Amino acid sequence: MTTQTAVPRSGDRAPALTLWTMMILTFVTGVVDAVGFLGLDRVFVGNMTGNIVILGMAVAGADDLPVVGPAIALGTFTFGAFLGGILLRRRRKAWSGAVSGLLIAGTVTLTGLGAASLVPGWADTTVFELVASSSTAAVMGVQAAVARSLAVTDVTTVVVTSTLTSFASESLVGGGVRGVWNRRLAAIAVIFAGALAGALLLNLGLAAPLLLAAALTGVVAALGHGLLYVPVASAASAAPE
What we know:
- The chain is mainly alpha-helical.
- It has one domain (11-227): Growth Hormone, Chain: A (Up-down Bundle).
- The protein contains nine helices and two strands.
- Strands 1-2 form a two-stranded antiparallel sheet.
- Helix 1 packs antiparallel against helix 5, helix 1 runs parallel beside helix 7 (183-201) and helix 2 packs antiparallel against helix 3 (68-88).
- It is globular and about 45 Å long.
C-alpha cells in the first residue's frame, strides 16, 4: 500500500514564498474585518479581541452595541480554528494538501458570500449579516490555524497586537533605525492597507471586498500548492522492486 505525504520544496525560495503568502492573507484579514465592522453590524471577523471587547461593553449596555453577531463570530472562528488544527495536526511547518484544501474552502465560502450579497434585498437583511459574519469568521479561524501551522515568525495573519509589541520592544530597542524595516512592520502596514482597501471597496457594495478577499485567498492556495507543496511517494513505493 502506498501513501503520500507533503514536504516543502528545498532551496532558499520556500521561506520567502511562505512569508509572502502569509502577508497576502494578512491583507485579506484587513479587508474582511473592514467588511465585518462597517458592513455587517460592527462584527470583527478576524480580530477576536475586538469582538470580546465589544461583547463586554454590549453586556454593560453601552452605545447599543451588538451581542448576537460578535458572539456567533467568536464561536465560528473558534470552530474554524479547531477544524483547521485537527486537519493540520500531523503536518506542521509544511505546505500540505490539507493547507491547500482549507484555503480553497475559504475561497469558495467567500466567493459564495460575495455572490449572495448581490441578490437584491438579501444583503440588507439581518439573516444575511449573521450568516456572512459567522461564515467569514470561520474562514478566518481556519486561516489562523493555517498560519500557526506554517509557523512564519511574527505573521499570524489575523492579529498584529503581539507583532506591534515585538516591533516596539525588540526591533526598535535592539536594532534602532535598522530595526524598523522588517516583517513586523510589514505585517502591520499590510493589515492596515487591507482595512483601507476593504473600507473603500464597500462603497461599491459588500460583493466587491468579499470577492477580492476570495480571489486573494485563491491566489495564495494556488501559489502555495504549486510552489511550496510536493507530493512524495512513501519509501515503500519508492524502493526499487
